C-alpha cells in the first residue's frame, strides 16, 4: 500500500471514530443508529463507511450544492400565519432503515390501511360498528370530520382511500408504533420526492452503491390509483389545491408536474350536467378524477361548509352520479379523530380477527365514563389532547403535559369537567432518535435527535403498495416535536437499504404510452397568471432601462446619445416618468439615490424589484409549468435587485447592476423562447410581454420622441428601445425625429419596435382557441386587426405625440379585451379564505 493510500485509510478511520465516538442515545429511548445492546445497526454502518470515503470538506461542499439547488428551484414551505416562503430545510444525513425492518413496517402499514378503508366503508355505509357497540355513535356523529351528505355514496371503484399515511416512530421496546393516521389528504409524498432528487444530486453514487430502493415505481402506482374508477380510459386528473398560500403548495406543484396532473383551484372548476368540468381557455373540459388537497368540508359549499370559497358548489352531486373519482373521499378525515384511536384495537379484532401489527400509545376517550375515571386517577401520567385536529394556527400539541401544577392543572381539570368528550388522553411515548450532524465546538460529530417518519401507501388492484421511502422530520432540539415543519425541524431523505442491487426505474416506462402531440387544455387561471408573468417581467425591464438611461452608463462606449447631466431637461423627464410609474418616492433625489430606489426600492410599488417580485409571485403559482432554469434566473434577478439598505452604492456600481439585470432579462427571454413548448401557455407569456412592451414603448415615445424632442431625448429613446447601434449603422447624420419614430414604432425588422410587437401579437392571437362556431372574429381579435391595419399603412409623420398616446391606450384596451375573453372573472382570486393548508 502506498503512503497516500495509507494516509487515506487512516484519515477515513479517524473521521469515522470522531463522528461516532461520542454518540450516546438517551436513556430508555429507542435509537435508529444503535440497537438495544448499544451496537450500531448494520445499515447505518454501511452508510457511514461509504460517507467516510469523503472528507468533511467534501461533504460540506456537496451539501452546499444541494442547498443552492433548493434555492434555485424554489423548494420551500410556509408556516401558518407567516406569508414568507422558507427554504426547504433538508438535512445532509438520510434516515436509514434496513430491508427486513422495512418489510415488517410495510406489512403493518398495509394492514392498517385496509382496516381504515373498511372502517370508512362502514361509517358511510351500514354503520355496523356503531350498531354492534364497537364504536360509540357520539364518536362518529360528534366529529366535525363526519360528512353526513357523503353517507350512502359508493365511490367509483369502491375505494374511499387512494392514499393512506401513518406517522410512526419506534416505541419503548424498539418496535415501530403509530403516532397518527393520516387519511384526510396526506401531505408529504411530494417533499419525499424532492428530498430524494436533491440528495441524489449531492451524492449520486451512494444510492447505487448502497442499494437504496427507488421511489419512481410507487408514483407510477399512485397515478394509476387516482385514475382507477374513472369512466374514460385516458382520464383527466386534477390536483385540487387551496392556492399558493397553502403551506404545502410547492409540494402540490411538484406532484402535479411529476405525475402530469392538472393543478387547479376551486375557481377553475364548475359543475355542468351533473359532472365536474375545468374552466379552460378552450371552454369547459370534463374532469374525471380529483386529488383533493383541501379539507373535506371545503370541497362543496352547497352541501358542506357554506362559507367555503375553496371548493365547487355541487361537487357531491358528481360523486353521487358516479362520474367523478376523488382521492381521498370527503369525510375520510374522521379516521384521524383521537377518539377513534381509543376503539381501534377492538375494531381491528372484529374486522381482522387479531391484534394490529402496528399499535399506538394507549388512548382513552374522555367521553366514556369509565375512561374518564381512569384519566382523572392517572392525570399525572397521561397527556391530554383534543379529539379533533385543531384549526390551523392553533397548537396541535397536548393542551397539558404530565405533572401539571398550579393554574395549568386547574385548566386541565376544568376542561375534563366541562367538556370531557372533546378530549382524549394518551400514555406518554417519547419519540425515538436518529443520528444528526452537530458542530458544537467546531468539531463535526453525530448526535441523537428525535424524529417522526411518515410512511405512505397507495391502493392497487392487487392491494396496497407502500412507498419504499417516506417523509422524515427530525428535530434539532430534544424538546421540539417534529410533528410539523417549522423552525428547528429538518427533513431527511429516507433510505430503504435493499439486500441486493436495485434497478433504476424512471417514472415513464418506455412504450407505456401512445405517441401524441396534443398540447392539453390550459386552465383560465393559469393563462391569467402566465399573461401577467410576462407583463411584470417586461415592466421590470422597462424600469431597469430607464434607470440605466438616467445613470448615463448603459452602453456608454458605443452610445453617444445618453446624457449624464442630472438636471438636464432630458434627465428631468426621466425622473418625471419614474415618478409617474411609482418607481421613486421623490424626483429630487440625487442621481445615485434615485437610481437605487428605482431599481431596488421596497417601499415604491413601481420599482424594478417590486415588479420582479410580482413576476416571481406569478411564477410561484405556475411552478408546475415553469422550468427550473427559468425559476433560477428569476431568483437571481430578485437577489440582484434586492441590495438592501446597508450601504451607499456609487453610480458606477449601479450601472453594473443595470447591466447584469438586463443580462438576466435577456436570459429569461431566451429561456422562454428556446425552452418553452409552443403550447397555449407560451402564447400567453409572450403575449403579455409583447403588449406590455408596446404600452411601455408608447409611453417612452410620448416623453422622449414627442413633437418637441431634443437630440438628447431622441438618444434616450433609442437607448430605451435598444436600437442605438442599428440606428447608427443606418443613419450617419445623428438622431432626427422622424427616423427615430420610424425605427422604434414602424420598423418591422426591429425586434423592439411597436410594429414588430403588433405582428407577434397577431400571430399569438391567431393561435389561441376560439369559441365561435361561425368563424367570425371575437372582439379582441377585431381590435387587434384594426390596430394592425392602422399601423401597417402609417408613416412616421402620422404619429405625433397625441397619436402615440392614443395608441398606448388602445393596447391597454386590447389587454382588457383579452382578459375578458380568456381569464376567470375572479378579481379576488387570492382572497384571504385561500390561506388554508394541510399539515
UniProtKB/TrEMBL annotation:
Residue span, DUF403 domain: 522-823
Domain of life according to the entry: Bacteria
Domain Circularly permuted ATP-grasp type: 94-474
Record SUPFAM superfamilies: Glutathione synthetase ATP-binding domain-like
Pfam families linked: Alpha-E, CP_ATPgrasp_2
Gene3D superfamilies per record: 3.30.1490.270, 3.40.50.11290
Protein name stated in the entry: Uncharacterized conserved protein, circularly permuted ATPgrasp superfamily
Taxonomic lineage: Bacteria, Pseudomonadati, Pseudomonadota, Alphaproteobacteria, Hyphomicrobiales
Amino acid at each position: 500500500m502506498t503512503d497516500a493510500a495509507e494516509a487515506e485509510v487512516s484519515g477515513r478511520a479517524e473521521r469515522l471514530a470522531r463522528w461516532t465516538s461520542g454518540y450516546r442515545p438517551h436513556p430508555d429511548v429507542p435509537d435508529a443508529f444503535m440497537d438495544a445492546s448499544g451496537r450500531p445497526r448494520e445499515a447505518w454502518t454501511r452508510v457511514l463507511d461509504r460517507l467516510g470515503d469523503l472528507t468533511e470538506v467534501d461533504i460540506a461542499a456537496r451539501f452546499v450544492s444541494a442547498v443552492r439547488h433548493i434555492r434555485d428551484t424554489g423548494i420551500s414551505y410556509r408556516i401558518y400565519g407567516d406569508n414568507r416562503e422558507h427554504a426547504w430545510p433538508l438535512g445532509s444525513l438520510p434516515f436509514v432503515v434496513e430491508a427486513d425492518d422495512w418489510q415488517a413496517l410495510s406489512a403493518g402499514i398495509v394492514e392498517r390501511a385496509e382496516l381504515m378503508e373498511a372502517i370508512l366503508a362502514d361509517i358511510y355505509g351500514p354503520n355496523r360498528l356503531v350498531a354492534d357497540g364497537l364504536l360509540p355513535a357520539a364518536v362518529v356523529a360528534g366529529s366535525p370530520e363526519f360528512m353526513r351528505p357523503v353517507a350512502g355514496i359508493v365511490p367509483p371503484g369502491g375505494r374511499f382511500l387512494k392514499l393512506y399515511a401513518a406517522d410512526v416512530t419506534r416505541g419503548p421496546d424498539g418496535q415501530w408504533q403509530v403516532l397518527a393516521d393520516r387519511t384526510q389528504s396526506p401531505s408529504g409524498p411530494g417533499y419525499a420526492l424532492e428530498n430524494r432528487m436533491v440528495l441524489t444530486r449531492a451524492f449520486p453514487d451512494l444510492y447505487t452503491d448502497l442499494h437504496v430502493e427507488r421511489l419512481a415505481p410507487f408514483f407510477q402506482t399512485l397515478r394509476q390509483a387516482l385514475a382507477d374508477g374513472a369512466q374514460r380510459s385516458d382520464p383527466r386528473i386534477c390536483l385540487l389545491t387551496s392556492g399558493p398560500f397553502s403551506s404545502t403548495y410547492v409540494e402540490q406543484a411538484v406532484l402535479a408536474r411529476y405525475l402530469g396532473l392538472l393543478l387547479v383551484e376551486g375557481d377553475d372548476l364548475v359543475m355542468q350536467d351533473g359532472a365536474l368540468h375545468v374552466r379552460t381557455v378552450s371552454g369547459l373540459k370534463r374532469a374525471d378524477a380529483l386529488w383533493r388537497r383541501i379539507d373535506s368540508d371545503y370541497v362543496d359549499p352547497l352541501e358542506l361548509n357554506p362559507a367555503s370559497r375553496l371548493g365547487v358548489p355541487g361537487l357531491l352531486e358528481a360523486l353521487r352520479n358516479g362520474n367523478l373519482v376523488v382521492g381521498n373521499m370527503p369525510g375520510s378525515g374522521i379516521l384521524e379523530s383521537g377518539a377513534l384511536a381509543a376503539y381501534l384495537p377492538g375494531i381491528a379484532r372484529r374486522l381482522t380477527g387479531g391484534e394490529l401489527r402496528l399499535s399506538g400509545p394507549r388512548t382513552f376517550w374522555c367521553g366514556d365514563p369509565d375512561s374518564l375515571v381512569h384519566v382523572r386517577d392517572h392525570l399525572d401520567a397521561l397527556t391530554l389532547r383534543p379529539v379533533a385536529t385543531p384549526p390551523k394556527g392553533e397548537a396541535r400539541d397536548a393542551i397539558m403535559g404530565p405533572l401539571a401544577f398550579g393554574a395549568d392543572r386547574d385548566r386541565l381539570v376544568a376542561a375534563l369537567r366541562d367538556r370531557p368528550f372533546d378530549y382524549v388522553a394518551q400514555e406518554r411515548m417519547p419519540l425515538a432518535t436518529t443520528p444528526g450532524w452537530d458542530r458544537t465546538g467546531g468539531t463535526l460529530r453525530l448526535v441523537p435527535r428525535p424524529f417522526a417518519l411518515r410512511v405512505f401507501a397507495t391502493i392497487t388492484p392487487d392491494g396496497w403498495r407502500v412507498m419504499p421511502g417516506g417523509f422524515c422530520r427530525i428535530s434539532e432540539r430534544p424538546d421540539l416535536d417534529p410533528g410539523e415543519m417549522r423552525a428547528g425541524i429538518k427533513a431527511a431523505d429516507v433510505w430503504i437499504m435493499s439486500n441486493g442491487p436495485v434497478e433504476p426505474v424512471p417514472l415513464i416506462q418506455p412504450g407505456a404510452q401512445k405517441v401524441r402531440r396534443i398540447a392539453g387544455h390550459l386552465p383560465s387561471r393559469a393563462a391569467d397568471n402566465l399573461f401577467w408573468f410576462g407583463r411584470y417581467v417586461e415592466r421590470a425591464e422597462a424600469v431597469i432601462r430607464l434607470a440605466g438611461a438616467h445613470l448615463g452608463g448603459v452602453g456608454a462606449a458605443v452610445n453617444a446619445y445618453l446624457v449624464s447631466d442630472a438636471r438636464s431637461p432630458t434627465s428631468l423627464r426621466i425622473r418625471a416618468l419614474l415618478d409617474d410609474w411609482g418607481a421613486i418616492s421623490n424626483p429630487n433625489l440625487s442621481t445615485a439615490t434615485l437610481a437605487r430606489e428605482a431599481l431596488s426600492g421596497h417601499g415604491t410599488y413601481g420599482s424594478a424589484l417590486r415588479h420582479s417580485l410580482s413576476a416571481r409571485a406569478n411564477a410561484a403559482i405556475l411552478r408546475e409549468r415553469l422550468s427550473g432554469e427559468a425559476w433560477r434566473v428569476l431568483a437571481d434577478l430578485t437577489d440582484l435587485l434586492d441590495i438592501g439598505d446597508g450601504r451607499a452604492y456609487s453610480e458606477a456600481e449601479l450601472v453594473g447592476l443595470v447591466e447584469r439585470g438586463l443580462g438576466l432579462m435577456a436570459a429569461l427571454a431566451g429561456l422562454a423562447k428556446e425552452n418553452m413548448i409552443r403550447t397555449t401557455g407560451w402564447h400567453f407569456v409572450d403575449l403579455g410581454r409583447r403588449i406590455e412592451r408596446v404600452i411601455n414603448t408608447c409611453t417612452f415615445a410620448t416623453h422622449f420622441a414627442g413633437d418637441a424632442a431634443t437630440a438628447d431625448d431622441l438618444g434616450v429613446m433609442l437607448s430605451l428601445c435598444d436600437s442605438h447601434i442599428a440606428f447608427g449603422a443606418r443613419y450617419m447624420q445623428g438622431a432626427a425625429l422622424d427616423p427615430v419614430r420610424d425605427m422604434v414604432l414602424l420598423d418591422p425588422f426591429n425586434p423592439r419596435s411597436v410594429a414588430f410587437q403588433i405582428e407577434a401579437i397577431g400571430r399569438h392571437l391567431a393561435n389561441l382557441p376560439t369559441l365561435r362556431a361561425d368563424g367570425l372574429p371575437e372582439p379582441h381579435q377585431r381590435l387587434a386587426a384594426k390596430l394592425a391595419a392602422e399601423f401597417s399603412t402609417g408613416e412616421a409623420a402620422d404619429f405625433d405625440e397625441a397619436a402615440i398616446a392614443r395608441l398606448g391606450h388602445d393596447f391597454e384596451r386590447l389587454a382588457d379585451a383579452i382578459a375578458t375573453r380568456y381569464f376567470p372573472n375572479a378579481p379576488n382570486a387570492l382572497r384571504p379564505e385561500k390561506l388554508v393548508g394541510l399539515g
